[in-house]
Amino acid sequence: MTFADLGLSPKVLSAVTDAGYTQPTPIQAGAIPHALLGKDILGIAQTGTGKTASFVLPMLTRLEKGRARARMPRTLILEPTRELAAQVEENFIRYGKNHKLNIALLIGGVSFDEQDKKLERGADVLIATPGRLLDHRERGKLLLNGVEILVIDEADRMLDMGFIPDIERICEMIPFTRQTLFFSATMPPEITKLTEKFLHAPVRVEVSKAASAATNIIQRLVKSGSKPWDKRETLRNLIKAEDAELKNAIIFCNRKVEVSELFRSLLKYDFDAGALHGDMDQRARMQMLANFRDGKLRYLVASDVAARGLDIPDVSHVFNYDVPIHAEDYVHRIGRTGRAGRSGKSFTIATKSDTKYIDAIERLIGNKIEWHDGDLSTVVASEGGEDDAPRRGKGAPRRAGRKDDDRKDRGERKPRERHARPSEDAAPAMVREEQPDVVETAVADIGERRSRKEAIRSENTERKSSDRNEQRAPERGDTRPQRDSNRPARQRHQEDNDSTVGFGDDMPAFMRIVAKV
């Protein structure tokens, strides 16, 4: 079967031929004819099987008739991430080069004003993430009552990112008579309920078992110690061992902070690496992806933002630096390699704490994953890698030759340099080194202060002794008045030494003014 047998228009067939494609993939052969007839479709296929073209090509054929009005798009495509939305826009530009269609992309990180201008011109194709779409709708810049075709792409990813309530709101804004194309790689129960609610007598096109991995990908588990420096060393050894067959690779981490740390570690060891995660600026993210596609970067350290639907055709290896917490993410991650019938390899670094996640992945894909060089029972406790030493415990000897770069690789802070305050006894020695001619003066000052302190201490001792003698005076027949022992010592001292201090002979001038009667 060729694309000419699917019923596409001559303009679309010409663009597909120019792109170098002649035969459709199974999901394209199953979905395109029904989409051209206006039927709702539920498409389930492995990632990397050409799901994007299975809705782009029939939409272009149907959009050849008619034009969009201002703020009223004719079609709507919902994507979970900015990268996927931008990638779908590229597909429409590539296959729609013989069409004069207005395409609007509504994603975060881009100015509202530019997007408003595109909507005012009228959008035949509107590609958006749910959040930014609702923002434009609430601002009164977008009307959805003219949408003829709705596409919900990567629905399982929408579920993971919490977009299902937004999807339900958007579907209620679109006419009931629309055509809905629903695509997903996995079908959890929540997605099944969503399809039952918004699809009407859909044609189910399932070309492979849901959540199954491609058979042309070699999958291996790699044991590692639990310390971060153990995993980094294991990854470096894997990369070096696969260097002969490795063209480029995506390295997946579970968290953004791990992406940044691993990226810095690879740069330290002179690996040509880049980083991609959700906190990056949109322009930086797109530039990083473009560099990786063009071969300017050999390694891309990424979070799961790069795991879904990104079309990078020739990725030879995928390394899971962290075992994914959700088993479905494993299928999407390794699907970045082995695309379009090519072969690929995936290596997943596992520690003893990852056992339950590995079991969940094996249950999902229905197969056991082979170990690369022995299972976790053969892991040897680490004493610290050559570049990553554990923090020194209490009482442990300090390692010699530790460098600041090692601390950075472990994420530790460099300890502050603390300067001890010189003691009073050390003052003469310091002065003697810096200013020998004032040594005798400094020593004399210190001695004078010590003598003054001793004199005050002696005087206080004599006063206390005198007070005790006065209290015992009546017993010895002393005729001096006895002090009140119940009064505080400070009060007794003030009363006994009560001497009013006045102005003396120098009376202020304002005191000499005669008051007027």
From TrEMBL:
SMART domains: DEXDc (SM00487), HELICc (SM00490). Its EC number is 3.6.4.13. PROSITE patterns: DEAD_ATP_HELICASE, HELICASE_ATP_BIND_1, HELICASE_CTER, Q_MOTIF. Residues 234-384 form the Helicase C-terminal domain. Residues 380-506 are annotated as: Disordered. Residues 1-29 form the DEAD-box RNA helicase Q domain. Residues 392-401 have a biased composition (Basic residues). A motif (Q motif) lies at residues 1-29. Residues 32-205 form the Helicase ATP-binding domain. GO terms for cellular component: cytosol. Keywords: ATP-binding, Cytoplasm, Helicase, Hydrolase, Nucleotide-binding. Gene3D superfamilies: P-loop containing nucleotide triphosphate hydrolases. It catalyses: ATP + H2O = ADP + phosphate + H(+). Belongs to the DEAD box helicase family. This is DEAD-box ATP-dependent RNA helicase RhpA. It comes from Rhizobium loti.
